[in-house]
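Here is the promised in-class demo. Please do not try to memorize the tokens; focus on the logic of going from shape to residues.
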């Protein structure tokens, strides 16, 4: 995409959206995520298809993690924040048994505000990432414990989607990952027959606990 011809530049927004949704599919469906999606590795073929090059860096997500991510996304979209502490434990961001500490010490409140801000679009221009991590460290210090951690697997996911978001923002300064991928996420939740996804669907459609 960084060497697109003049004839194909008008098609970059579509191909960028296709790339984002393809990576969402890799993460939530196939479980094999290509982790180096810089523009030089994303090729628009002459017939308008997306070709992803250089599969030397990939991450594997097991089925349980993929289902947990689907549940987490459903909770975020439905603003079912009561389930976020449990999600954070399952995803490895909060130590086992640390739900109450994360909730009582402001971690969940801070993250939900961040999620809401990110959903507005505009990428990292909308909030200060270093300040976010500094605040999380401060909350841990006040709690006297490490109540929030970054699991190793997440670094690869964050790198991939931050790069893709950058491509989207180059096309549209108000680009939003959520808006771009919500149709795929909706289909993914609706068509999966597993009981856990059925629970995510109920949350997705009817919202969180009232």
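The designed amino acids, position by position:
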């Amino acid at each position: 995409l960084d060497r697109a011809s003049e004839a194909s530049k008008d098609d970059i927004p579509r191909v960028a959206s296709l790339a984002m949704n393809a990576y969402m599919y890799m993460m939530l469906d196939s479980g094999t995520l290509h982790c180096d999606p810089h523009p030089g590795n994303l090729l628009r073929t002459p017939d308008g298809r997306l070709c992803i090059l250089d599969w030397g860096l990939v991450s594997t997500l097991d089925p349980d993690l993929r289902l947990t991510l689907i549940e987490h996304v459903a909770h975020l979209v439905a603003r079912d924040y009561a389930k976020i502490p449990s999600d954070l434990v399952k995803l490895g961001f909060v130590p086992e048994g640390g739900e109450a500490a994360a909730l009582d010490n402001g971690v969940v409140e801070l993250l939900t505000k961040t999620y809401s801000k990110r959903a507005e679009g505009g990428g990292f221009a909308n909030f200060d990432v270093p300040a976010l991590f500094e605040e999380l460290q401060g909350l841990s210090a006040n709690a006297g414990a490490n109540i929030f951690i970054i699991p190793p697997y997440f670094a690869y996911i964050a790198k991939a989607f931050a790069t893709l978001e950058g491509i989207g923002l180059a096309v549209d300064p108000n680009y939003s990952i959520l808006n771009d991928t919500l149709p795929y996420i909706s289909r993914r939740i609706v068509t999966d027959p597993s009981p856990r996804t059925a629970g995510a669907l109920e949350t997705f459609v009817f919202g969180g606990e009232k």
